[in-house]
């Protein structure tokens, strides 16, 4: 073998090794919120869009408001709690516990209302809140990058990215409040 053949063989072997490396899977099939306003099939395929507020942090407790806006042309019905999944930076689900109501994470407060059926008229909104604590004791600290939020079990989920991530620490828990009407 010549020196050139050896180099080409080494390069080919290196490329084969790189190709065999573990590559993160593509993100799960969720729809990002529509970017353009207006109730068209292209911008509002699910009849709603979900967005998030800034994360509020105080003494380790984090609160993240989520809003569902009816961007369709007929009422959208919600009844209960949003379905939340935490994802890593590659869009892979992270196994955590998601409880309903504030109590799994915090003391009950004004957001802890029982779920009620709500018909959201076109252009109207409803809100919910996601809570977590950044508590770190023994064990593995977890930080997620994104959430998928569905209005209810079985409904289409949309991707929401809280500014600063979701630093659940070693609690591995989120809590979510029921959908509620937005006060005008």
Automatic annotation (TrEMBL):
Q: Which PROSITE patterns match?
A: PROKAR_LIPOPROTEIN
Q: Cite the entry's keywords alphabetically.
A: Signal
Q: Could you tell me the superkingdom of the organism this chain comes from?
A: Bacteria
DUF4232 domain sequence ranges:
47-180
Instruction: Give the signal sequence positions.
Output: 1-19
**Annotated protein name in UniProt:** Uncharacterized protein DUF4232
Give the source species. Asanoa ferruginea
């Amino acid at each position: 073998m010549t020196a050139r053949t050896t180099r080409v063989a080494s390069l080919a072997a290196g490329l084969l090794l790189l190709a065999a490396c573990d590559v993160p899977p593509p993100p799960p099939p969720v729809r990002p919120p529509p970017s353009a306003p207006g109730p068209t099939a292209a911008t509002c395929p699910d009849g709603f869009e979900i967005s998030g507020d800034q994360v509020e942090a105080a003494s380790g407790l984090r609160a993240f408001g989520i809003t569902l806006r009816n961007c369709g042309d007929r009422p959208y019905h919600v009844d209960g709690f949003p379905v939340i999944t935490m994802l890593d930076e590659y869009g892979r689900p992270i196994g955590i516990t998601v409880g309903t109501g504030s109590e799994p994470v915090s003391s009950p407060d004004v957001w802890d209302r029982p779920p009620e059926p709500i018909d959201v008229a076109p252009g109207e909104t409803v809100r919910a809140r996601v809570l977590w604590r950044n508590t770190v004791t023994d064990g593995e600290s977890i930080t997620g990058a994104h959430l998928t939020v569905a209005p209810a079990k079985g409904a289409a989920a949309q991707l929401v990215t809280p500014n600063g991530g979701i630093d659940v620490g070693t609690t591995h828990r989120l809590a979510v409040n029921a959908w509620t009407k937005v006060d005008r």
